[in-house]
Description:
Elements: H1 2-20, H2 22-41, H3 47-82, H4 84-91
Helix pairs in contact: 1-3, 2-3, 3-4
Amino acid sequence: MRQQLEQERIDGEKARQLLENSVFKDAWRAAEASIVEQMADVKMRDTEMHTRLILALQILNSVRRHIQTVMDTGKMADIQLREPNKLARILGR
Protein backbone atom coordinates (compact mmCIF):
# COMPACT_ATOMS: atom_id res chain seq x y z
CA MET A 1 0.00 0.00 0.00
CA ARG A 2 2.77 2.43 0.92
CA GLN A 3 4.56 1.74 -2.37
CA GLN A 4 1.39 2.53 -4.31
CA LEU A 5 0.92 5.76 -2.35
CA GLU A 6 4.53 6.74 -3.06
CA GLN A 7 4.01 6.16 -6.78
CA GLU A 8 0.78 8.19 -6.73
CA ARG A 9 2.60 11.00 -4.91
CA ILE A 10 5.41 10.96 -7.50
CA ASP A 11 2.97 10.87 -10.43
CA GLY A 12 0.96 13.69 -8.84
CA GLU A 13 4.06 15.85 -8.56
CA LYS A 14 4.92 15.17 -12.20
CA ALA A 15 1.36 16.12 -13.19
CA ARG A 16 1.62 19.36 -11.17
CA GLN A 17 4.92 20.23 -12.86
CA LEU A 18 3.39 19.54 -16.25
CA LEU A 19 0.33 21.72 -15.63
CA GLU A 20 2.55 24.56 -14.37
CA ASN A 21 5.09 24.27 -17.20
CA SER A 22 5.01 27.41 -19.37
CA VAL A 23 5.75 25.51 -22.60
CA PHE A 24 2.88 23.11 -21.87
CA LYS A 25 0.56 26.00 -21.03
CA ASP A 26 1.43 27.80 -24.26
CA ALA A 27 0.95 24.64 -26.32
CA TRP A 28 -2.38 23.99 -24.61
CA ARG A 29 -3.65 27.50 -25.23
CA ALA A 30 -2.54 27.34 -28.88
CA ALA A 31 -4.27 23.99 -29.44
CA GLU A 32 -7.47 25.16 -27.75
CA ALA A 33 -7.45 28.49 -29.61
CA SER A 34 -6.91 26.72 -32.92
CA ILE A 35 -9.90 24.46 -32.37
CA VAL A 36 -12.14 27.35 -31.29
CA GLU A 37 -10.99 29.46 -34.25
CA GLN A 38 -11.79 26.63 -36.64
CA MET A 39 -15.20 26.23 -35.02
CA ALA A 40 -15.92 29.90 -35.69
CA ASP A 41 -14.77 29.65 -39.30
CA VAL A 42 -16.42 26.40 -40.38
CA LYS A 43 -19.49 26.71 -42.57
CA MET A 44 -22.79 26.06 -40.80
CA ARG A 45 -23.77 23.30 -43.21
CA ASP A 46 -20.51 21.38 -42.56
CA THR A 47 -21.91 19.31 -39.71
CA GLU A 48 -19.20 16.67 -40.03
CA MET A 49 -16.47 19.24 -39.36
CA HIS A 50 -18.48 20.74 -36.49
CA THR A 51 -18.70 17.28 -34.94
CA ARG A 52 -14.97 16.67 -35.39
CA LEU A 53 -14.05 19.98 -33.80
CA ILE A 54 -16.36 19.38 -30.85
CA LEU A 55 -14.79 15.95 -30.36
CA ALA A 56 -11.31 17.47 -30.55
CA LEU A 57 -12.20 19.99 -27.85
CA GLN A 58 -13.76 17.28 -25.70
CA ILE A 59 -10.66 15.10 -26.02
CA LEU A 60 -8.41 18.03 -25.16
CA ASN A 61 -10.47 18.73 -22.04
CA SER A 62 -10.49 15.05 -21.13
CA VAL A 63 -6.70 14.99 -21.17
CA ARG A 64 -6.56 18.02 -18.85
CA ARG A 65 -9.06 16.42 -16.45
CA HIS A 66 -6.98 13.25 -16.35
CA ILE A 67 -3.78 15.16 -15.55
CA GLN A 68 -5.66 17.14 -12.87
CA THR A 69 -6.98 13.90 -11.37
CA VAL A 70 -3.48 12.43 -11.23
CA MET A 71 -2.27 15.60 -9.50
CA ASP A 72 -5.14 15.55 -6.98
CA THR A 73 -4.59 11.85 -6.28
CA GLY A 74 -0.93 12.60 -5.64
CA LYS A 75 -1.85 15.31 -3.15
CA MET A 76 -4.11 12.90 -1.29
CA ALA A 77 -1.40 10.24 -1.30
CA ASP A 78 1.09 12.76 0.07
CA ILE A 79 -1.27 13.65 2.91
CA GLN A 80 -1.86 10.00 3.64
CA LEU A 81 1.86 9.26 3.70
CA ARG A 82 2.70 12.21 5.95
CA GLU A 83 -0.28 12.03 8.26
CA PRO A 84 -2.38 8.87 7.84
CA ASN A 85 -5.19 10.13 10.09
CA LYS A 86 -5.38 13.62 8.56
CA LEU A 87 -6.95 12.39 5.33
CA ALA A 88 -9.73 10.68 7.27
CA ARG A 89 -10.36 13.93 9.16
CA ILE A 90 -10.44 15.95 5.93
CA LEU A 91 -12.88 13.55 4.34
CA GLY A 92 -14.98 13.45 7.52
CA ARG A 93 -14.55 9.75 8.17
